[in-house]
Amino acid sequence: MHxxxxxxxxxxxxxxxHAQFNRAxxxxxxxxxxxxxxxxxxxxxxxxxxxxxxxxxxxxxxYNYFLSDDPDEYLEKGNLVVSTFNEQKLLDTNGTTRVIxxxxxxxxxxxxYKHESYDTQGNQKxxxxxxxxxxxxxxxxxxxxxxxxxxxxxxxxxxxNFRGKNYYFATFEELLRFFYQELEHHFQNNQxxxxxxxxxxxxxxxxxxxxxxxxxxxxHAEHFVGQxxxxxxxxNHYQYLxxxxxxxxxxxxxxxxxxxxxxxxxxxxxxTLNQKIIVIPVGGxxxxxxxxxxxxxxxxxxxxxxxxxxxxxxxxxxxxxxLRESGYLATLDIYxxxxxxxxxxxxxxxxxxxxxxxxxxxxxxxxxxxxKYHAFVAASYSEGxxxxxxxxxxxxxxxxxxxxxxGAQTLIDSGQNGILVPITMNDSENISQLTQAMMHIYNCxxxxxxxNQKIPLTLEEKYIADKWQELxxxxx
Length: 476
Description:
The protein is an alpha/beta fold. The chain has 3 domains: 2-79 and 174-279, Rossmann fold (3-Layer(aba) Sandwich), CATH 3.40.50; 86-172; 299-454, 3-Layer(aba) Sandwich (Rossmann fold), CATH 3.40.50.2000. Helix content is 34%, strand content 28%. The chain has 16 helices and 24 strands. Strands 3-2-1-11-12-15-16 form a 7-stranded parallel sheet, sandwiched between helices. Strands 4-5-6-7-8-9-10 form a 7-stranded antiparallel sheet. A 6-stranded parallel sheet has the order 19-18-17-20-22-24, with helices on both faces. α1 (15-29) crosses α16 (461-475), α5 (172-186) crosses α6 (198-207) and α10 (313-325) crosses α15. The radius of gyration is 24 Å and the shape is globular.
């Protein structure tokens, strides 16, 4: 079985989840079996599965598995009965939530106990989960949460009447190890594609000597931070990977440029790394939309991403404001959700741009929405690939983007299908150059739109599906 390992699934996902969705589509095209594996506590998981059209038989949720009436049947078919999620909160006399009682969308109920602490630095009360009890028709699972400098950690985990036995796990990692052993006992010829979670890497590597399976790590973002003296400093998400490269069967990156950098940054045999690191784009193009034309008037710009600070959405809003001040007619629609929503809303209002810039929220069919715009704009300084770039290309939109590694530099041929904006150490200078690029597109729009019709072989969906099949065949 091929397992796509992740922590969570949500209403609005990052590029990691969308990369998994695409991979599932390619696997289906080649009749390759797979299962999504989610290791986080997700009381509303089935609602999200329905939204993203993921079948029950395609998912294994760690908690759903341990609470299932028939564990073996669940591993094969998923939840045969799905419940409607609901919850009730019990408040104390001060109006503070003390207990949350949930009917999860799976086959179990949850009781979540809360407590408050006072943050003297932030001068505010903070609510914590202290204890969780999960109950199904046949089983019970419960644990305590311990506050640590890295956040809350599960401890003292009890699993009652699982396959007729009671179990105790001191930490979540011990529970996770038991979970993967269960998968190994049920499935054969397993390959674990780890998309997220250092704990998943650590536990699976610890089991590798006892079981015959393969580990494939997917790199979704910029992997390199810089150098501290003579030492490479890696992105925290990939630190464990680069400490144990020798024990990993395969590393998948989205661009040849990232593969090149990793090979030259690691002090290892280049021939070995060249064979171990495989380039497979996380998304491809079926067919590019007909050529668009711009006949003057209002240029309709669009961007789509998580609304997080590192995406620099404010830069695009500032650029639109400068366009307006210079007499250019333009609008900007921003798709996505995230913790920057309120800040962006305030920036738009402060600059009196409410009639020009709109926050459109999340849209699960963004590829279809892009068809009504002229150009796509992105302002992230770092992008491992950028699935929205691919969706923009597929819809025939020229792209204006900072020249980030690795997505923009791979997908945009500056002057041909878009404009790459150099990145400096000065945000104001970058915004100025982004504005100039957006102004320039008014004069060269048709040239860039025509250039967007040339699809590189490596972005064709058939090529990508073939590469996954080839990788799997080489690991067997």
